[in-house]
Amino acid sequence: MNSQAISQVSDCTPLLVPADPRLVRVEDLLEACDGFLFTGGRPNVHPEEYGEAETKAHGFFDRSRDAIALPLIRACVERGQPILGICRGFQEVNVAMGGTLYPEIRDLPGRMNHRMPPDGSIEEKFALRHKVTLAQGGVFAKLFGAQEVMTNTLHGQGIKEAGARIVVEGYAPDGTPEAIYVQGARGFTLAVQWHPEWNAANDPVSRPLFVAFGKAVQDYATRRSPPSAQADKVA
Questions:
Q1: CB half-sphere exposure, 73, CA atoms < 13 A
Q2: Within a domain: residue 234?
Q3: Can you give the pLDDT at residue 233?
Q4: 3-state secondary structure the chain
Q5: What is the mean pLDDT of the segment spanning 29-51?
Q6: How far is CA 27 from CA 8, 68, 202, in A?
Q7: Residue 235 lies in a domain
Q8: Total structural domains in the chain?
Q9: Do 38 and 2 touch, CB atoms closer than 8 A?
Q10: Residue 210 lies inside a defined structural domain of this protein
Q11: Positions marked catalytic
Q12: Separation of alpha carbons 146 and 220, rounded Å
């Protein structure tokens, strides 16, 4: 779904990156790609990355992805290189900027269960389940043309404390942060807690998000490449 969204909606060329520091270097990725989509994933960011001890509630991890994604996000923010974070990628953006996470949102008083429904078809699992209220006149409200949007929800963890320069512009009805960006970044740094890659070509919220990301990637590629090298943009 992510590759389809990048190709069909963002109008960029998707490349799958092995998230393993034994195989790739952040420096090389920055030069090889014009933008980065940080996707969702079942493993969680290890709590040591935000100064907390591991517990059973934190689930299981992918330390190799942590080792690539977190410094890559920080480098992109500093360079003005476009990034789009989705679900785990949303959480990675927050952690990369010094934020923390709750290990399990549904265990908090007054919070709803944001996890994927255990039963049903894939269409039912990715169905729109709650609204997200956006900051009036903010980046996301302008992008979507609305202050409230409907989204799916398929996550267990969520933002506890926002990192430095992280602006939270969207919230679920229970107060869970759902849409963020990095304040003062020179490039595109939007991230969402839901999964916009599902039905990205047709969903009225997903499509403008991927279109805007694609435009940011293409603009970045144009700025750093000679005209002869601008035929294909890579994300």
A1: 30
A2: no
A3: 56
A4: CHHHHHHHHCCCECCCCCCCCCCCCHHHHHHHCCCEEECCCCCECCHHHHCCCCCHHHCCECHHHHHHHHHHHHHHHHHCCCEEEECHHHHHHHHHCCCEEECCHHHCCCCCCCCCCCCCCHHHHCCCCEEEEECCCCHHHHHHCCCEEEECCCCCCEEEECCCCEEEEEECCCCCEEEEEECCCCCCEEEECCCCCCCCCCCCCHHHHHHHHHHHHHHHHHHHCCHHHCCCCEC
A5: 96
A6: 28, 10, 35
A7: no
A8: 1
A9: no
A10: yes
A11: 87, 195, 197
A12: 27
CATH number at residue 60: 3.40.50.880
pLDDT over 60 (residue 230):
no
Alpha carbons 66 and 49: distance in angstroms, whole number: 8
Domain that includes residue 81, residue range: 2-229
Tokens describing residue 182: 């990095």
Contacts of 28 (CB under 8 A, 6+ apart): none
pTM of the model: 0.94
